[in-house]
Structures are given as C-alpha cells and as structure tokens.
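Name: MOSC domain-containing protein
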Amino acid sequence: MQGTVTAVSSNGEYSFTKPNRDSINLLAGLGVEGDVHAGVTVKHRSRVAQDPTQPNLRQVHLIHEELFEEVGTTGFRVAAGELGENITTRGIDLLGLPVGTLLRIGDEAVVEVTGLRNPCVQIDNFQGGLLKQVVGRDEDGNLVRKAGIMSVVKAGGVVRPGDIVKAELPDGPHRALDRV
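Structure predicted for MOSC domain-containing protein:
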C-alpha cells in the first residue's frame, strides 16, 4: 500500500492552520523540527492541562487530500495545511491503517501510526459547520473521525511534496485506530 506526499506544513507558533513549506525535517522521537507540536511529551494545550508528562503520541499529523474533495462536495473549501496537518497525502487509506503501521516517507523518514486525530470545535471556528463534515456516524451509529491520523517519528529525515509514502503493516492481529 502506498501513496504520495502532496504537501508539507509546519508552524512554530500556536495557530490552527500551518503554512505549506518546500520541505519539513522529521526528528526521531520529537516530531517536525520547528513545529509547535514537536516534543517528547504532549504539546496540545488541552492535554498539557490534563497531564503535561503524557507521552506525545501526536508528533506528526497526516491527512488525506481526498478529504478536501469530499468536504468540497458540500460547499467547503479546504487546502493543505489548513486543518493543521504536517503531511498531506494522496492515494493511501490513512484512516484504514491499524495502530503500529510504519509509514516510510521519502528516502529516510519513518513514522509509526498511533491513532486518529480527535477533531475539536476549532474546525468550526475555521469554517462554520465543517466539524460535522469531518466527524460523523456510520450506518451502525458509531462515531467516525475523518480528520487524519497521528504518529510518532521513528526515524528522522526530510519530507517533501512528491515523496512516496509506503505503509508497512504490523504483525497481526491488527488493532483499529482510535482517537489519541
């Protein structure tokens, strides 16, 4: 299973959106160099308030570009980096990957998938009503989160648009993604 990086984004300041870059540098055990969410322990404000010693399972946020097209059919316009992701992909089913999947990105970088992004009200602050488009229910009434996946950096390296993303599934049995 593989796809392509279509955009990379980072921001050194707390902001919902992240500007696109020519490249980002992933640092093993930390995240995106210079990004406000990089670090060994949690950086998201709500999680820091709960327990600042928690491990940072959200070092790198990946989102599938196909989501932008999906929400576009309901009138929303979203571009790479605008939902706060670091890596935007195309052609790989990020949401269908199990916990522990290794994503080999470009020549060197490797991230391990930890779980789903848990979208919050900031998405509605960005565009009113968008939260309902990225969080819904399936036919059985189960909550479905579509705003990307979170990961930790296992091997550092530079990531650029155009890089190939290859998924390496963990040994089974596989554990479905849940929010982190």
